[in-house]
Amino acid sequence: MIKKQLWKLIFLLGHFLITAGLTVGLISAEWGLIPLIFLISGILISGFWVVLQSQRSKWWKQRSTQAGTNAILATLAVLIILGLINFLGIRYHLRTDLTETQLFTLAPQSKELLRNLPQPMKVWLFTRDQNYQDQELLDNYRRQSPNFKYEYVDPQARPGLAEKFGVQHLGEVYLEFENKHQLVQTVNDNERLSEIRLTNHLQQIISNNTAKVYFLQGHGELKITNNQTNTQNSITQAVQGLTDENFTALPLNLTENPQVPDDATVVIVAGPKQELFSGEVQALQDYLNRGGNLLLMINPNSNPKIDNLLKDWGVKLDNRLAIDISGQSLGIGPAAPLVTEYGQHPITKQFGNGISLYPLARPLEITSVSGVESTPLLRTKPHPSSWAESDQQSEKLEFNEGKDLKGPLTLGVALTRKLSTQVTPIPTSLPTSTSSPTSTSSPIPTPSPTNANSQPTTKESRLVVLGNSDFAKNGLFEQQLNGDVFLNCVTWLSQKDQQTLSIRPKEPTNRRITMSTAKANLLSISSLLLLPFLSFGAGAIIWWRRR
């Protein structure tokens, strides 16, 4: 009897020590020596008690003990696995977007901008409606960079802050960066926060420079302003894309002043239908020779008479029409090549196997020229999927050996040429005085000592030639990667190498279902009542037949 009481005391002592160790540790919030001594002693005593009891009673060999132990171990294993999953989920963030248009994934351009944020940036949302969709988008931004933060503000609760930003309406969203504020948009029930606008404003507020892009006009080129009679022949969507990226688009007429303005960062010739005057071509050549940057988009069946300009760069326009039959299964005609193969160049390096579309394009011939570095940008699929068709009048498009050119065809090329220029020193002024009492000391420019030591610096001139301009027209600009091809070309030509060349965010496809109140009620009743009732009835019938 005494021996039995002793075992019971040992059992209670083990549990007492464990309880004491946990209590001391939790209350003091420090797991020092004393709580550890209590815990270790209690665990050892309890373990000793369990081992001795099992040897005495042989309960370990009992079937019920083994079954219970297996259940306990299985339960512990599940709990440990769940704990590990939660631990990894908190420590490492991994998400998989299964939506068709990657609705919950930021575009590559947004990610790259956020990763390269030089300073903290904050988004202020002056609204009392903390919409889940907006928060999801902002959380995606915040995950990309610790420098990105956002905060909801009730304008009535913090009127001073609202006045500081100049808030006029509820729902206004502002971007703050280095003491600069910029209105992004106004959110409401019908218009939620847009990744396109937020990323565009983010890029604008980071970049301080505004570059001027001139569009040559006067030869049937695409219009940079809205044409009321023919909006499809305009390039206003592309111009808006340039504006969003801090470029200023301006028209250029070389017949009025046969010289490209000195402040031109990029000159674009978009689909001329008539030939250029020799003086205009010479002006473009002079512009390139002094370090200019030119984008030529030349459609087939047009001859702008710029062969001499292109010859200096090793480019020749092919008069045949690019044919690509790989897109016929998608309902795309053979005269609209689908490009999925891009050159290893900053303009296209992020494109992967993305699609861009070029209706009515001409191939380019590239030859090597000393001092010029060329990189093909756009390539069609190899023959027999694509070829250059010489007989454009034929109703049946087919490859003719000896006349047509087998694919793959080059539809775009980027070229650079190094230019050596002499540094123009800034003259320094040294004061000199004369003996005449009426004269005053006047600065006389004298050559700087650095003149003799000035070294020539290397300047680069850039040229991009595309065998199509229609891909940038309104309606096609937003298709697939067309807009990214155009904007990346201009950005690369601007020689702002610190700017992001990537894939820009696109408008998500609207897949919302709009239904009437009656249909919504019918859907609710059928899903909450009808289907469960049918399932329950089927189960009851089966039970009744099997009983």
From TrEMBL:
The chain crosses the membrane at residues 7-27, 33-52, 72-94, 522-544. Residues 100-168 form the DUF7088 domain. It comes from the Bacteria. Residues 212-478 form the ABC-type uncharacterised transport system domain. Residues 424-443 have a biased composition (Low complexity). Keywords: Membrane, Transmembrane, Transmembrane helix. InterPro entries: ABC_transp_unknown, Class_I_gatase-like, DUF7088, IFT52. Residues 375-395, 424-458 are annotated as: Disordered. The keyword Protease does not apply. PANTHER family: INTRAFLAGELLAR TRANSPORT PROTEIN 52 HOMOLOG (PTHR12969:SF7), NGD5/OSM-6/IFT52 (PTHR12969). This is ABC-type uncharacterized transport system. It comes from Nostoc azollae (strain 0708) (Anabaena azollae (strain 0708)). The lineage of its organism: Bacteria, Bacillati, Cyanobacteriota, Cyanophyceae, Nostocales.
